[in-house]
Amino acid sequence: MKRGWMVLLLLMSAHSARALEIQGVTVPPTAQVGGETLQLNGAGLRTFSLLMIPIKIYVASLYTPSAIRSDSGMMSSQGPMEFDFTFLRAVNQSDVTKAWESQFAQSVSYTYPGYARDRDAFIAMFGPLQNLGVEKVQLLGTNTVIFDQGVPKGTIPGRDFQKSFLSLWFGSNPVATDLKNALLGK
């Protein structure tokens, strides 16, 4: 009987450690952040409708130390966390900038003195993207660390910016409700 439970537990853990595939993008089950192994909390597809035609933009994945399934849990989490955004098409510099500016303008529900300066510094760290290019944002301690296509671009210090960034996805007006739910593993 004990052996049966052990086999079942091994099968369950092997199942939960599998990579996902979304739109041809492999989403690994774990990520390394600050020397810690984080687990995939959730992943999903970001689409944008143009004249009622859905355009597939990127695959987003979120890694956390343990499962977080609620907006409030995500907003209060001290991390570490990693967000990966794998773009499904090439995007030029001006469109990357416009997209981040639009997302911040429409969805951020947490601001603070100095927010505009930090937001602009964050957006300026991203360049043009090739097809399947990856933007990565790590919340590590009180720092937000930005990587653009595998290259470290800089850090925005302070928990306030982290809360603003999290409010893009989990605040009162998320970028996309279906993507929010996917990132929460729902």
Task: Using brief descriptors, characterize the structure shown.
186 residues; alpha+beta; Chalcone isomerase; two-stranded antiparallel sheet; 6 helices; 9 strands; 34% strand; disordered N terminus
Describe this structure in words.
This protein is 35% helix and 34% strand. It has a single domain, classed as Chalcone isomerase, CATH 3.50.70. By secondary structure, it is of the alpha+beta class. The chain is globular, with a radius of gyration of 17 Å. The strands form 2 sheets. Strands 3-4-5-6-7-8-9 form a 7-stranded antiparallel β-sheet. Helix 3 runs antiparallel to helix 4 and helix 3 crosses helix 5. The chain contains 6 helices and 9 strands.
